[in-house]
Amino acid sequence: xxxxxxxxxxxxxxxxxxxxxxxxxxxxxxxxxxxxxxxxxxxxxxxxxxxxxxxxxxxxxxxxxxxxxxxxxxxxxxxxxxxxxxxxxxxxxxxxxxxxxxxxxxxxxxxxxxxxxxxxxxxxxxxxxxxxxxxxxxxxxxxxxxxxxxxxxxxxxxxxxxxxxxxxxxxxxxxxxxxxxxxxxxxxxxxxxxxxxxxxxxxxxxxxxxxxxxxxxxxxxxxxxxxxxxxxxxxxxxxxxxxxxxxxxxxxxxxxxxxxxxxxxxxxxxxxxxxxxxxxxxxxxxxxxxxxxxxxxxxxxxxxxxxxxxxxxxxxxxxxxxxxxxxxxxxxxxxxxxxxxxxxxxxxxxxxxxxxxxxxxxxxxxxxxxxxxxxxxxxxxxxxxxxxxxxxxxxxxxxxxxxxxxxxxxxxxxxxxxxxxxxxxxxxxxxxxxxxxxxxxxxxxxxxxxxxxxxxxxxxxxxxxxxxxxxxxxxxxxxxxxxxxxxxxxxxx
Length: 493
Known about the structure:
The chain has 493 residues and is an alpha/beta fold.
């Protein structure tokens, strides 16, 4: 077999989850499958067993494929530190920075790394299912592209384009995507997938027939809207999915919406807990009213701390701490709780005052810490991962908490993923509820977080099996894109 590229009419069309579903479906057929994304732009990342850092979505897709995640599955990861600069991770390790003005012209070296990684993966796996980035019709970036049609052209990959019908205009987006491509790129577009549909597919059928007629490409199927598939989202903004998961009552959690939030997926496990309502916010009143406030990770700790103060959120957090009401900082959020921060690496700001809620001093090092630590708390085992430049040193008295500290109702740790450990999460939330004066207790029959993730992946694969033309999918994997697909000139009816 060969490979396949899942592209999208837009960002957040559902490429990541469709790729995950196809990976799980193919694994069920007994194939050895690898996910691949040549370049990912995301601050949500994960540390593999070999110490490599890759995008969270590719880690999830590897889990879907039932294989060990590795650096080659996401050879280039761009982590935005500002609107004009991204930190580059190549083959799992820091590689430097990329300025916005360099993006269109400075990618040749990264493309070579990505192409070599794909070739190496394809030599070891039966199938490589690739995920594109953004839209393949971003023609302003086509010349140096190596994640969408540039990748497909290099390895003669058939391309399926996913469109999000929930946004509206999906048929126009599909036609427009094809029409903007060159004849050589169009030749690889093999079909369409409609995603996130709610309602009677019969009402959509005339539109599907029309898009097949005017493009000469088949619609492989219509995937329905699936609830509870927001776990491990690639983009920090996708955590808005938490709002659909509110269960009402119990414990309220306010997560501060940092502009450069990183690994905000840490709070997925809290949002999945019955009776826990998670809200993403930049409102000081919401922060002050919640039972628990979380300062999540940040790719730009000092800049996000400045933003926190500009919104008056620092006052709300300090008031909570003074009143003995729970505050949790994770990684960058934990660093903000310190007395002082010395950053000559990310922001180049030198020494700045922290919030002063934990007796620690943070300093940044040019060498990134990547690891998968483990420990315990109150007798509960905790496995986690860490990705950070800043390290905290205790400067006063505090109780240990994982790798960090606790003073009163203020908790901090650099460990990501700690709350995915069911026993630890539920014991800690019980203590938080007590401090907040709530009667919340864990539901005795609630599934664990790992089980929820597996259920999500299986339901994605079930949707692929039920709603897509899997015979055509397998044909594309064995035969590649058909050689006689018509060219659609721009502006064609």
